[in-house]
Amino acid sequence: MEILFLIGRILFGGFFLWMGIGHFTKKVGLIAYAQSRGVSSTSAAVLLSGVMVILGGVGIILGVFIDIALWLIIIFLVFVSFMIHKFWEINDPSQRMVEANAFMKNIALLGAALMMLIISSPWAISLGSY
Predict the structure, then answer these.
(1) Rounded CA separation 105/113 (Å)
(2) Angle at Cα 86 formed by Cα 60 and Cα 14, nearest 5°?
(3) Please, are residues 13 and 59 in contact by the beta-carbon 8 Å criterion?
(4) Dist CA 57 CA 39 (whole Å)
(5) How far is it, in rounded angstroms, from Cα 95 to Cα 125?
(6) Could you list the residue ranges forming a coiled coil in this record (predicted)?
(7) CA–CA dist 101, 110 (Å, integer)
(8) What is the pLDDT of residue 22?
């Protein structure tokens, strides 16, 4: 079972690590998207959120600073879900569906992160257990 938990951590944390890297490699597009959604200080917001999800993802993968890593992910998901993916404000049906799907995906990930908070640390097969 420990190996399944490790695989799950790699998949879950890897998702956020990949997203965070995208905040830097696709910065221009993400800044424009955030601006179109009414976010202020978009450049700083994109870079800060990129750092948050990179640190969160790495912490989850390695099993270090677990509570901090998960809270970074939780904070990111709450803010991005309700500030960026406000599908209820969109009139175009296809764009509304895209944003609703992104919102619901984030809410599901938020639920997983919240559940991970109750798993006692150090986690098995992690740098935090040595």
Answers:
(1) 12
(2) 20
(3) yes
(4) 24
(5) 42
(6) none
(7) 14
(8) 96
In this predicted structure, what is the pLDDT of residue 55? Answer: 98
DSSP letter for 123, please.
Answer: P
CA separation (Å) from 57 to 13, 48, 49, 87, 91? Answer: 4, 14, 12, 26, 34
Distance CA 78, CA 69 (A): 15
What is the spatial distance between Cα 87 and Cα 111, in angstroms, rounded to a whole number? 19
Q: Which stretches within the chain are classed as H helix?
A: 2-25, 27-36, 42-62, 66-83, 93-116
Dig out the tokens for 52 from the structure.
């948050």
Mean pLDDT over the full length of the chain: 93
Residue at token pair 């424009």: 32
- Report the alpha-carbon angle 45-23-101, nearest 5: 90
* pLDDT score of 128 more than 80: no
Q: What is the number of other CB atoms lying within 10 angstroms of the CB of residue 83?
A: 13
> Where do the domains of the chain lie?
2-118
